[in-house]
Specification:
The protein is of the alpha/beta class and about 725 residues long. It is about 30% helix and about 25% strand. It folds into 5 domains: about 100 residues, PriA, 3(prime) DNA-binding domain (GIY-YIG endonuclease, 3-Layer(aba) Sandwich); about 60 residues; about 170 residues, Rossmann fold, CATH 3.40.50.300; about 180 residues, P-loop containing nucleotide triphosphate hydrolases (Rossmann fold); about 90 residues, Alpha-Beta Plaits.
Amino acid sequence: MSIPTVAVLLTVPLAGPLDYLEPEEIRLGAGDYVEVPLGGRLVPGVVWGEGRGGVAPGRLRPVARRYPLAAMPEASRRFIDWVARYTVSTPGAVLKMALSVPAALEGPRGAAAYRQVEGAPPTGLRMTAPRRRVLERLADGAVHALADLVETAECTPAVVQGLVDAGALALVPGAAAAGEEAQPVPDWRCAGPVLGGEQAAAAAALRTTVDARTYAVTVLDGVTGSGKTEVYFEAIAACLAAGRQVLVLVPEIGLTAQWLERFVKRFGERPALWHSDLGQGLRRRTWRAVAGGRAPVVVGARSALFLPFADLGLIVVDEEHEQAFKQEEGVHYHARDMAVVRAHLGGIPIVLASATPSLETCVNVDLGRYQRLALPARHGGASLPEIALIDLRLDPPERRRWISPPLVAAVGEALAAGEQAMLFLNRRGYAPLTLCRGCGYRLPCPQCSAWLVEHRGAGRLQCHHCGHAITRPTACPHCGKEGLMAACGPGVERIAEEAAERFPQARTAILTSDTLQGPQMVEALVKKITDHEYDLLIGTQVMAKGYHFPMLTLVGVVDADLGLTGGDLRAAERTYQLLHQVAGRAGRAERQGRVMMQSYMPEHPVMQALADGDRDRFLALEISERRTYELPPFTRLAALIVSGADAAAVDQVARALGLAAPQDEGVSVFGPAPAPLALLRGRHRRRLLIKAARSLSIQGLVSRWLAAVAVPHAVHVQVDIDPYSFL
C-alpha cells in the first residue's frame, strides 16, 4: 500500500518542491497553503501537486497543518514556475514574493468557527482520541471557535480540519470572515465623465476586450492629457460589472494622489493599495482580501503582481515605459513583461498605457503581437505645449548660476501673470560632488564607488546608493586646510537657492523623493499646489508622472542633456520619455503651456524630436540603430553580477566564469570587468554580459554556464535577464 505524499514548494531558495507525508487528518490538494517542518523549524509553503517520489518513506515527515484559506489559483502557481524559469531563479525565491506576508496565512484570532454535522459520524471515519474530544465538545450543537476547540479538546488545528474534510464538522458560513476588515467596493455603475470621440471609441474597444474574457494585449498610446486614465477606467468598470478583480500596476505608488482622487470620483470608493510603505497589519488584511476575492480593485507597485487573486479579470500597467517596473534586487524581473505573462496564463486582457511607450512595446505593436489604441489629442480641447530649446553655448547662465537668461525671463513672465512655473532637474540634493579647492580631494563614499552628495538643508553629505552620511566638513579630510571645500555642480536645492534670489516673492516648493516621504505627504502637497498655494515648483522626476496642475503653464528643464551620458543602451529612449513626460505637465487646462529646455546639444536627435513633436521619427531612428547594432529587442541580453566582501574571491569566481563562458554560435560574452559601481554597500562587484540571438534560449545558456563553475558561499552570483541597469 502506497503512502500518500504531496510535493510542497517552500519559501526558501531550493531547486523545487519537497515531498511530505499527507496526514490522515488532512486531505490536501494542489494550491493548499500548509506549514511543514524543515530542519528544526516550521515554514510555510504551498502544495504543488502529488509527491515526486524517490525518497524513502521513513525519511519523510508529515505536513504539520493546512491553513484555512482558499487554495492558491492554478494561474498563480503556473506564473510562479514561469517567472522562476525565465529569471533563472529558484521557484522558492519567487514563491517568497507571493507569500511576502506570512502572517496573512493566519486568520483573525477566533475568526474560524465550526459546528457538528447532524447525524452519526460519517462511515469510515477513523476515530482518534483527539477527534473524539472535539466531537464531544461540539455535542451541544453550538458553534465553537477554532481557538476554543484547540484549547479545550487539546488538539491541533489539523485535527479539526481533518474532521471538516471527512464531513463530520462544518465551517459556519460567515464565521470564517469574522474579524476580517470589510473592503471598500467600487461601484461600476457610477457615471463617468463624458468622453470625446477618440476617447469613447478607445473605451468601447477596451470594454469589448474585457467582455471577451480572453488574453489580449492593448497598448493605450495617448499624448499627455489625452484622457488615458478615464479610458481605461471604463475597462475597469466592465470588469467589475462581470464580478471579477482588477490589478492596476503603477511605477511609484507614493505618487498616485491625484490618480486615487480621480478613481474615487469615478467609482465612489478607493481601491485596495499594495506597496512596501503599508504597515504589516494592513498588508496582512489586504493580502487576505485579495486571496478571498473581497478586494475588487488593487492598485500597487510591481510586487502586487504576485498577489494570489481569486478571480483576476484585467491587468492595467500605467506608465508602462517606466524603469521603476524593473526589480533589481533578489529576483530580477520586469513587472510590465511579467504582467503580460500573467495575463496570458490567466487568459485575461491587459492594457499597457503610456504617452511614450517603450521601444519593446512599439516593436510588439509593429509585429502584430499587441493591439494599439491611439489618443493623439488632449482631452477637452487643451493644446499641447510649445517646446523651445535653449542653446547654452549661445545663452549661457551667469557665472556660478545655472538658469539661463531666456529661462529666467520666462519664469518671471509666468509668475507676473499669476501662473505657476516648474524648474526640473533630475538630481537630488544641493550638489553632486564636494571637493577641496586646495588639493583636489573629492569626498567619496567609503562603501560604494560613488561621491557623496551634499544635502545643504540637512547639513550632511550622503551616498544615494547605501545611505552612508557624514556632517559637511569645514576642513579637507586629506590636506587639512580650512574653508576650501567647494560644492561642484547643481542639484535641485541649489536651483532653489538661485530661484529664491531671482524671484524672492515666489512661494517655492521643492519636490524630490527626499522631501516627499510617504503617500500622505504627497497627497497634502499636491493639494496645496492644485490650490495655488505655491507659485514655483522645483523638482526631480517625481514630478514627471501624471500630475495635473491647471495653473502650471511653464516648465523649464535646467539640464536636458543629463540622461544622455553613461553608455546605457537605452539612454536616448529614457531621456526622450522623461523629458516628454515633464513637458506634459505644462498647459493641461485652458491656458497655453510652454516648455524651455536648456541643452549643450540642441542638435541631438532626442532634442530635435522633442522640439518638433515628432516622436515616431525618433522611435524609427532608435529602432533602426538597435537593429543595426544587434541590441534588444532584436537580441537577448543577460548579466551576471558577481559580488562579495573579499575582492580576491570575487575576482577568482569572475575569472572562472569568463573561462567557462558559452562558445555557441550566435553568442557573445563580454567581461568579466569591474562594474561601474565596483563597490556597492561594501561588496566588490564584477559583471559579465552575454548577448544571444533571439532564436536561442538565453536561460538555458546561463544555466549551463553557472553549473560549470563552483561558487563559494562567500561569493554571490546574481542573474539579470533583460538587464535595464548596467551599474
